[in-house]
Design a protein that fits this description.
Helices cover 0% and strands 49% of the residues. The chain is built from no helices and 21 strands. By secondary structure, it is mainly β.
């Protein structure tokens, strides 16, 4: 049963020995804010130059209505501001105004009734690999006895995406030669390599170089590699090399396999 009091103490009398009393104290005025980076999963990073979204929730968890509610968002210097919107949670209704100046985002939300929350969707673009930190501070015109939940911090990892900088080249060899296909990449390591022969995976070849010793005409065909980063349990970033041919003893492949020139990065 709710008991309302404006005193710092609550006295309960005539408690029977066989009863348990559970007291929950709800502040008269209390503003709470949280912030989270919206990646693929909680342990996954975001890519350099890719749009990245924060969700900032500010809620009136006290017993009284609050006025003059503001949210100050201090963006990391390693990101660029793109846009921000604010709606009342559970609706599509916009609330307040949002401005940005020099990566300092200020949202004026006005009044929030008790039990009401607003959600800010803030989009940025990371410019460098590394770690970005977003600091959010909520305030109101009323006195709050507890300011511990008025500040929230989100820290996320920014990944430089894998990119092929030196691609495969066609090779010509004599029977018995050793042939090496190589690819060079840039980005944030570690990298995984999967080589293909005529679009069929080569299960034991997972290095940056594919070495074919003592080649014969059975090695004639098309070779390619997919280089991937797997920085988290729910994200994988890949880039594909061009398809390169191998000719042995004057005998070369006749047709390009299905899949053709696959040099297209994709993210899943």
């Amino acid at each position: 049963m709710p008991v309302r009091t404006n005193q710092p103490t609550l006295t309960v009398s005539n408690i029977s020995a066989e009863h348990i009393v559970l007291a929950t104290f709800i502040p008269t005025n209390d503003l709470a804010v949280t912030v989270v980076g919206m990646t693929f999963g909680p342990e996954d990073p975001v890519l350099v130059s890719n749009a990245f979204t924060y969700q900032i929730d500010v809620a009136n968890t006290g017993r009284n209505p609050l006025s003059g509610v503001t949210v100050t968002n201090i963006l990391d210097p390693g990101v660029s501001f793109i846009s921000a919107t604010c709606t009342l949670v559970g609706t599509t209704n916009s609330i307040g105004t949002i401005t940005n100046q020099g990566n300092l985002v200020l949202a004026n939300l006005g009044a929030l009734s008790n039990g009401v929350a607003a959600s800010i969707i803030l989009t940025v673009v990371p410019n460098f690999e590394g770690t970005i930190t977003n600091v959010v501070i909520a305030a109101c015109d009323q006195f709050e006895p507890d300011l511990a939940n008025n500040t929230a911090v989100a820290t996320d990892t920014v990944l430089d995406p894998v990119t092929i900088v030196s691609d495969l080249t066609d090779q010509t060899a004599n029977p018995g030669d050793t042939v090496t296909f190589s690819v060079s990449v840039s980005g944030t390591p570690p990298f995984d390599y999967q080589w293909f022969f005529n679009d069929v995976p080569l299960n034991d070849d997972t290095n940056a170089d594919l070495i074919l010793p003592n080649v014969t005409t059975s090695n004639v065909g098309y070779y390619s590699v997919t280089v991937s980063q797997t920085p988290g349990p729910e994200a994988e970033y890949e880039t594909d090399s061009r398809v390169a041919s191998l000719t042995v003893g004057g005998i070369g492949p006749i047709t390009l396999p299905a899949g053709g020139n696959r040099a297209n990065r994709h993210v899943r």
